[in-house]
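thread: overnight batch results

M.L. [08:02]
morning all. the overnight job finished for the chain we discussed friday. pasting input first so we're all looking at the same thing
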Amino acid sequence: MQVTNEFLQNLRQDYKSASLDESDVDEDPVVQFQKWFQHAVDAQIYEPNVMTLATADKAGRPDARIVLLKGVDADGFRFFTNYLSAKGKELKRNPYAALVFFWPELERQVRIEGTVEKLDKETSEAYFNTRPIASQIGAVVSPQSQVIPDRTFLEEKVEELKAKTADKGVAKPAHWGGYIVKPTRIEFWQGRRSRLHDRINFELIKGIWTKTRLAP
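M.L. [08:03]
and the structure it wrote out:
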């Protein structure tokens, strides 16, 4: 099979599994997100906490990648990464981000926009200490987003650190930690037939969430 423009133009799915009405949505969008996330967990979706994180560089050019949600509460959405990575540098210059969750089995997506802050050192250390030791070592040795000569470079760094730490455990490096995205907008998208999707949007205006419906 050859992937042509015609093939892509005819590649479509008519969504029909559910609907979304304003009355179905909690007045607190974070609570509503938690409900939908639980639905995704109950549906046994593979890695329901996968999310696209979009940032912008100093020239305003967008940049996006997949990361994992590692916490959500009334304050916002948490993830962890290398502060010296491309996303870390972009967030330092421009502390705003967008998140997208897509659960195709439920024909749903959630779009989030907000300001970004670093989590405190204690919170980052507490999470780091729960990670498997191999992941801890990887976080220490990888100069994320930087050019490296080859795969062997990383593997040698891993073996060096393993030899040094043995069973002592690994300390969180200063360049690694968490961020929290504090939402100012959250949209719940439910696929519907004929592309007439349901879109319920929340915006934080003067500290109060305002709910509206958007055209698909």
